[in-house]
Fold:
Amino acid sequence: MHIVVCIKQVPDSAQIRIHPVTNTIMRQGVPAIINPYDLFSLEEALRLKDRFGGRVTVLTMGPPMAEASLRKAMSFGATDAVLLTDRKFAGSDTLATSYALTSAIRKLHEEEPVDLVFCGKQTIDGDTAQVGPGIATRMNMQQLTYVAKIEDVNLDSREITVQRRSEGGVQVLKSRLPAMITMLEGSNSMRFGTMDDMFRAARTPLKLWNKDTCVDDEAKVGLKGSPTVVSKVFVPKPRAEKAKMIEAEGGASAQAAAAIDMLFTTYPKLANDLVR
Amino acid sequence: RKFELSEELKAYKGVWVIVEQERGKVHTVSYELLGEARKLADKLGVEVGAVILGAPGPFINEISGEAIAYGADVVYTVLDAALAEYRTEPYSKVMTDVVNTFKPEIVLLGASTLGRDLAGAIATTLLTGLTADCTELDISPENRSLAATRPTFGGTLLCTIQTLAYRPQMATIRPRVMQMPERDGTRTGRVVEVTPNLAEDIFVTKVLDFIPDSDQEEAQLAFADIIVSGGKGLQKAENFKLVWDLAEVLGAEVGASRPCTQAGWVTSDRQVGQTGKTVRPKLYIAAGISGAIQHRVGCENSDVILAINSDPNAPIFDFAHHGIVGDALQILPALTEQFRQRRLVNRKAS
Ligand SMILES: Cc1cc2nc3c(=O)[nH]c(=O)nc-3n(C[C@H](O)[C@H](O)[C@H](O)COP(=O)(O)OP(=O)(O)OC[C@H]3O[C@@H](n4cnc5c(N)ncnc54)[C@H](O)[C@@H]3O)c2cc1C
Ligand SMILES: Cc1cc2nc3c(=O)[nH]c(=O)nc-3n(C[C@H](O)[C@H](O)[C@H](O)COP(=O)(O)OP(=O)(O)OC[C@H]3O[C@@H](n4cnc5c(N)ncnc54)[C@H](O)[C@@H]3O)c2cc1C
Structure:
């Protein structure tokens, strides 16, 4: 079985700060991590490899420093890794990103047919959830998003049964390989890699690909290949006024009484809802 | 890079909303979007189109009527047995065809599991731009294109994205971010029936079963009129009871900040914020919540926000309407007690 897992290196958003004067994102010193949602997909891929054998290739498009994320993924047990990196990819929106990644997956497919592609549900930086569906559509693969559980895989009939989260319930879907799957968060938890995996992750050479390796049409990547244009970046407007403070002498019960009086006089309509 | 629209693409007209219905039930985000589409279409001087996909059935007429009452001028009903349950393949196939036939300039979808799955697929077949999870939509006066604003980096910044040289312009919008429009039962509109004639055997994925969530399981947070939310400032799980007590006298739903759901003080479906629910109640009471940006984006559209925090400099006071500086562990029970008394008085009076 050949499984490709797409991972994205993202800044650890808990630590992002905005420069108070220039309103730009201060990335310096912010650690880069594997997009947390991608780990659920990677773990699921590794479980399938444990069961059926074969290999898991991790793929990322990003700057050269994204190598660290690929090595991390290999330390969990991924077989090999492709880093797709080229200045020409800079500024890609999701349509251009899915084109570049699909080009790389096609090349991997020529080397050994790909049965499954896994993507994260979404990223924590761009947060669009659009790249997975983009890849599935371009590869003409069955698209199975928000998967809570893979119930069954049958390699002979090439059938796969999954539970997919939808609004108000869970769909049980029967589909066929090749398919593109995005896993729901919490559907599994990432294993600890073995010592062997860690050594292998440090030693194995990565496949370093660029646009000439696999991209047919240069006009479809980067800014040029992106239909969306970011026209403005700005800080949310602070509310004009700060909260009006409710002050009262006499402790919590006096404060509570003053708050309720304030609500009832300022919002007479709300009063009905509150003491109905 | 080209920013000019080609002559062919200039012919694209109208603002569309894909109405999400699953098993006859319409996701309210679709009505919220019809309200937004109405505003955009009025600025452009064009029509609002609503697209309803599904199997033929009696409820389709009813949904068409609702779509018109909420702002649509024309309803496209795309009906086929293969569309009975949501599946990416048949839905994206018919939507691609319908867009290519009727050529709308803007297509809006809810950022739900259905909307995100479908939008990502059809933006790829149509080779056009798609802006995700928008919080604000407008028409740019210079070039009449859609200016779609979305939070980035967890809401610390906003960016406005446009699709200038491609059509349609697509966007997904989170449920409850836009206001529910007034329903106007006197509005009239046209219905255009589209019969796609799909052959079921060309679709690989089959729906074997649907397991509905039990109603009690899901907190009805997104639609609550009153919400009492607790944060890490409540200090321990037992103290969260004070939030439940106040919610009970007010007939309110209970919400929480992320550290509380992560610590297991309350279930995760009660989390308000960027990675939780967006809410817009008439009253939001936040007790012991600092007001981090990821929490703020989920509740700042509430009509009235009352914050209780022991720190007078807590960021929540920057966007709450009213504040009490004090110990939530004392103020919550005091509020509960006094609301209870007022309710008793009110009952006796009536
Ligand atoms: C703040 C911000 C807002 C943006 N808004 C938009 C927008 O509205 N519309 C738009 O078209 N573009 C947008 N972009 C550009 C978009 O983020 C990039 O195209 C990005 O490369 C992929 O999108 P994503 O991060 O949203 O990924 P998602 O679509 O959320 O990612 C889903 C999964 O796809 C895979 N994946 C995504 N990117 C890569 C990669 N580089 N390498 C390997 N696997 C990957 C991962 O498995 C990931 O979990 C935005 C970018 C930023 C920084
Ligand atoms: C990617 C990402 C996504 C996130 N998504 C969400 C999300 O969806 N929702 C969310 O809520 N958070 C989210 N967060 C977390 C968010 O950044 C904050 O950490 C979180 O909201 C803080 O919760 P809190 O205000 O309850 O706790 P704290 O920040 O610890 O604040 C506690 C507050 O209580 C006050 N306090 C202490 N004691 C008392 C007392 N006795 N009485 C009254 N007040 C008291 C303190 O002054 C303080 O202001 C996210 C973070 C990241 C990085």
Remarks:
- Chain A is about 35% helix and 30% strand.
- Chain A touches chain B through 78 residues (CB under 8 Å).
- Residues 2-220 of chain A form a domain with the Rossmann fold fold (CATH 3.40.50.620).
